[in-house]
Write a structure and sequence with these properties.
- The complex is a heterodimer of chains A (about 150) and B (about 230).
- Chain A has about 150 residues and is mostly helical.
- Helices cover about 65% and strands about 0% of the residues of chain A.
- The radius of gyration of chain A is 25 Å and the shape is extended.
- Chain B folds into two domains: about 50 residues; about 160 residues, no CATH class.
- The chains are: A mainly alpha (about 150), B mainly alpha (about 230).
- The interface between A and B is large, with 100 and 115 residues.
Chain lengths: ~150, ~230
């Protein structure tokens, strides 16, 4: 395969991957509503059946604080273990050296791409910014919404 | 083909001399990291977004001052992966390690009643505690011990232009796609207890969860990059 064929092939594969992503989510949503209809639900919005919920029972202020503190320490431990492991296993070495510098002007965006897809990149950046805000805001809203609706 | 993204100030860069760490970009990275940490706490998400925006504006200013900084797209996709993985990691680890606290039971019960019935139905009834759905719990273990901590460290290393960061962004990206596939299949197979057992059902779940599409957005873009740039 020539370099041009490789670039062309990878470009096609990139767009195929984008198409797969669209199919995954559109298909997933359609199937979800089809399953809902099969179980006798309507739009799926506000027509669910709620079972009774169990009693909320914590461990008191100090008990809960200790548990949350312990969870925090465990999280930091897991993250540190992964950082330690991967940074050592994948460190550049004689049998796996870094790619040599090609002297490109790194201030130019196109130097950072092997396959030039500026329009696709622009669209994906827009969605990524929107999704980052969505993820952070919706996750942060869970507790306040639950407290307003169901109380402590 | 010429990249037609935003024009940037032309800066003469000597890769042998110029380092990824410059005073302004280091300062900006600290803001970005603080923002990601805040988002990772789940409750401080909006504050985290503000800190990330400040970090991005500092990077932009550094570029205008002629300092060498990585392209904006690298920072945006790296932060997207970092924020998403942090929220998933912390959220699921709280269910795994802190399900006996009042706060978690309140939060989980409310979230379950509104979005996903699995989060309140028979909560804390198995020996591992928290969510009782066996498959959901298995995904939680997979998420807390494997995918998301490795994706968090990969995203940060990616932003810092380390080669292993680039490699592991791809690896954990695929793992996340596999997780999505299994997770969605499980949800649909268990419809009556999950979607059907909540107030907002299918629509509520998709409105809440579609934003977690990180790997689907980043994987095509990662394969377009020149991996030679991640050479640290």
């Amino acid at each position: 395969m020539t370099e041009t064929d490789v670039i062309k092939g990878r470009r096609h594969a990139i767009y195929a991957l984008v198409a797969f992503c669209a199919v995954f989510f559109i298909g997933g949503i359609i199937v979800s509503y089809a399953v809902a209809a099969n179980y006798g639900y309507g739009t799926g919005f506000g027509d669910g059946n709620l079972d009774p919920i169990g009693t909320v029972q914590g461990q008191g202020f100090f008990g809960d604080s200790a548990i949350l503190g312990g969870a925090f320490i465990l999280d930091v431990g897991i993250l540190s273990a992964w950082y330690w492991l991967v940074s050592r296993l994948e460190a550049p070495a004689d049998d796996d050296p870094l790619l040599s510098d090609d002297g490109a002007d790194l201030s130019l965006n196109e130097s950072w791409y092997f396959i030039q897809v500026p329009n696709l990149t622009r669209v994906l950046i827009g969605i990524a910014v929107f999704c980052t805000a969505g993820v952070a805001i919706l996750a942060a809203s869970i507790l306040p919404v639950v407290l307003l609706r169901y109380g402590w | 083909m010429v990249n037609q993204m935003n024009p940037q100030t032309a800066v003469q860069v000597n890769p042998d001399k110029d380092s990824v760490s410059t005073p302004q970009s280091d300062k900006a990275d600290r803001w970005l990291l603080a923002g990601a940490l805040c988002c990772g706490t789940i409750m401080l998400g909006p504050v985290g977004l503000i800190l990330i925006a400040v970090g991005l504006s500092k990077l932009h200013r550094a570029r205008r001052l002629g300092e060498w900084v990585r392209p904006t797209a690298v920072t945006v996709f790296g932060m997207f992966a970092l924020v998403d993985a942090s929220i998933n990691f912390v959220g699921w680890s709280l269910d795994l390690f802190a399900h006996n606290t009042h706060m978690l039971q309140t939060m989980s019960g409310g979230f379950g009643r509104m979005i996903d019935g699995g989060y309140y139905y028979r909560y804390n009834s198995t020996w591992l505690g928290g969510v009782s759905d066996r498959a959901e719990k298995s995904f939680a273990m997979f998420a807390v011990f494997m995918i998301f901590p490795s994706r968090i460290v990969a995203a940060w290393a990616f932003i810092k232009l380390r080669r292993w960061g680039y490699r592991w962004m791809i690896l954990t990206g695929w793992a996340y796609v596999f997780l999505w596939t299994g997770y969605l299949s499980n949800l649909l197979l268990n419809f009556p207890d999950r979607f059907g057992n909540s107030l907002y059902g299918v629509t509520g779940w998709w409105v809440f969860d579609i934003f977690y599409m990180t790997p689907f957005l980043t994987l095509p873009w990662l394969y377009a990059l020149n991996r030679r740039r991640w050479n640290r």
